[in-house]
Design goal:
By secondary structure, the protein is α/β, with parallel strands linked by helices. It has two helices and eight strands, in the order βαββββαβββ. It is 21% helix and 39% strand.
């Protein structure tokens, strides 16, 4: 299964800089720029993530209950992605930690308030 997800932004230049630095830290680089405004990251094989201006021309808003997760093979990967997001200006929504059932998650919001997480089910 492949993942494609996108978030909206009201400040495209700022959002692209945030995601270039954050996603670049896990090897997800620019795939292409959206002619309508935005950038796609990742790979056709591993999935794509985009930051875009809304197609309808209205202001971008965050979704209540919407969250996008990035899977990692280790807790160290979860921690590094979370801390990179915070260093880039993201805000904490739940520091890395055990969430039960062998899961390990970290939650944060991007510069526009979109909720993201990094997670693994890998042992310590």
């Amino acid at each position: 299964m492949q993942l494609y997800a996108s978030v909206g932004t009201n400040d495209l230049d700022r959002a692209i800089a945030f995601y270039e630095a954050l996603l670049g830290s896990i090897g997800w680089n620019r795939l292409f720029d959206n002619p309508g405004g935005g950038r796609f990251f990742g790979s056709i094989q591993d999935g794509m993530f985009a930051v875009v201006t809304p197609f309808d021309g209205e202001a971008a808003t965050i979704g209540n209950g919407t969250m996008i997760g990035f899977a990692f093979d280790s807790r160290a990967g979860v921690d590094a992605f979370y801390h990179r997001a915070i260093a880039l200006g993201g805000t904490d929504e739940g520091a890395p930690g055990d969430r039960g059932g062998g899961s390990y998650f970290a939650y944060f919001r991007d510069l526009d308030g979109n909720k993201l997480c990094s997670w693994t089910f890998a042992p310590c």
